[in-house]
Design goal:
Strand content: 25-35%
Strand order of the largest sheet: 9-8-3-12-13-14-15-16-17-18
Radius of gyration: 25 Å
CATH superfamily of the largest domain: Ribokinase
Number of domains: 2
Largest sheet: 10 strands, mixed
Shape: globular
CATH architecture of the largest domain: 3-Layer(aba) Sandwich
CATH class of the largest domain: Alpha Beta
Length: 387
Amino acid sequence: MSFLGGFEAVEPRTSGFFKLKKIRTLEKDMPRKSFVIQSIIFKNICYNIIMSENKNKIDFLAIGDIVIDAFIRLKDAHVYCKIDSDACELCMRFGDKIPYESVTVVPAVGNSPNAAVSAARLGLNSAIVTNIGDDRHGKECLDSLKSNKVITDYVTTEKNKLTNYHYVLWYDIDRTILIKHTDFDYKLPSLKKVSWIYLSSLADNSLSYHKEILEYLKNNVDTKLAFQPGTFQIKLGVEKLKEIYARTEIFFCNVEEAEMILKKENRTENKDILELSKGIQALGPKMVSISDGPKGSYFYNNGELWYLPIYPDITPPLERTGAGDAFSSTFTAALALGKSPLEAFTWGPINSMSVVQEIGAQKGLLFREKLEEYLKNAPEDYKARKI
């Protein structure tokens, strides 16, 4: 009886790469072993082809401005709320020296960068299209994106321009943000195949840029669009962005923004969520999600309105920056991962809960395994309810 020397291909549990283990094989077993080795080699080739295709495809592409946030924690201030409305104002002594508690600088944030990081942590091939200045702050943003596994091939660096830098006045658990957008020369780069585009905050000189994005969407009918309009996009008005609204798969905003978009009078008294949802959907989006802060969120799809409470805080919130971005980006990422709309809806508040436990909009963003653990252990009343 003779033995033949050879190798056995061993497939590890967590990787697509194959290891070879030296074996001794009976000569009479050679045909079967040969078949096994050939099958495994074929499987490995198929795996490599799929991986190559995945590298040329972007699951989640965020488009929007990137900023650095400087959190200034105030201790000598107060909040004044009007009796006849929900409007509140942050008040400090005028013409005086106001002490502050601390400053924390957080790079590479903003609606779209936050979304890109959120999607990357949930396991998607995530990229961003954005503009930075040729300065130290721009480099900090780029380094931060890379460290969070976000593809930066479509980040444009513009000479003689400053990277956006915002000041966040942090008082108690909420914040007021002082914003200033640099007028970048927006241009849509040549893109790989994209499954989802997540469009959010851009400066007020971006109207023609929206037309470029729309042209890409017209030429790539399989690409889905999630739209979370920022301040200037809401100010541009529905008419100027009507084709963007019409092309939107899922739309995100809060109650106050929905009222502004639909130009509702007496906005603070008029909070008929069903009416607002129908009004937004009439502009074109297939699905609409409207958040109402600590009161929970709503989802309108196929003529049905669903409500979901917030996920209970594991500890009292530290500050609320990025809660909305976490919700909408996680909802979209779950859809990109193949979840049903109602299941994706339940993912969003979990990341919002986690984000408010940290300073800034990204530190608390969860990886998929941890998010699914929270979902598995959710309280009994954490369920979407049709209303």
